[in-house]
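Annex B. Sample input.
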Amino acid sequence: MAELSLTDIRKSFGDTEVLKGISLTVADGEFVSLVGQSGCGKSTLLRIIAGLEAPDAGEIVIDGQPVNDLPPKMRNIAMVFQDYALYPHMSVAENLAMPLIMARLPLGARLPLMRLVSPRHKAERPGIMADVEKVAAQLRIDHLLDRRPAQLSGGQRQRVALGRALVRDPKLFLMDEPLSNLDAKLRVQVRKDIAELHDSSGLTFVYVTHDQTEAMTMSTRVALMQSGTFLQVGTPNALYTQPERLDVARFIGSPEINILPGEAIAGRVHLAGRPLDLQVPVDGPIQIGIRPEALAVADAPGLIFPAELDRGHLTELPFKKRLLEDLGPELVLHGSFSHFPDVDIRIRAQKSSKFRLDGPTASRTDLDVLVDPDMILVFDAQGERLTTTSRMQPVEGVA
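Annex B, continued. Sample output.
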């Protein structure tokens, strides 16, 4: 068992409060990503878990044991940093073996020359090399054991860094933006490697990233941080479909969610002066969130209109297109609704095989766009999520 429990963790640097009472439980075998913009406190929190920073207040418990007063080497954790931090003069096998040498041999036997004559090293070496070969095979780098880091690609170096942490058989695996130095193609591959490593090892992972794609594709749960606090903790799907605050909805999803001003009159949602088949438990100004993929372009040759949509249930708004991005299987259309000319709108549309860049849909600037009320997210003026129901159902608190 390797459960991690954080209770009311606080940390300040001078007058700046970086962590403001963080509490989180990570279950045994879970993969939790800490995601947020730079400066939100996620790396500081990871360093506190690792023992590299001391919290000003709060308790850290690993495997049922409080570890606030334990040094990093006594916490039985492994950490992978943004930098690979490999020994350039050592082979891959030697890099992988070094954590085991440090853990299993006395100080005198760790020195390079002393290892050649040390009986303890001779006794431990077969077990160390067996563990190295096992981890290398697991990460598919067993054919690279004789190479040095300079002879490896970026993805291979990152797998060596993962292996050097994994070979120690830790209770907890911490990763601080390990993919940020890789190019886009390698990030996809190593992301897959990390997900497979989690599935095969059964270890508890805590992963720090500013990239929502990494967090959403690999994690059991995502903890979205902002200004030293958690905005929301939940499954990737929950953060995407049921954001508790407008800031969560804006951060999760690409392209970013569209936000339009609206109004609730007698509990009924109005958009661009038009009543929608939607009720909320408030009256007055509201904010309406519409994902780019929740908008459909009507009568557009070459674009796929979702078959499940009932046009009689949709609200149609005139749209002026300014830019079209062709992403292969889909398009992103940029523009604005005529009712909200100053609000940038993004529409994500699936292409059919009949789409042509010189065709009528690509060349038109004036389009009709349909809004599905069932896919709308509604927030109050302060950005808190509002519960929505069909207007045919009574809403508590509104006459």
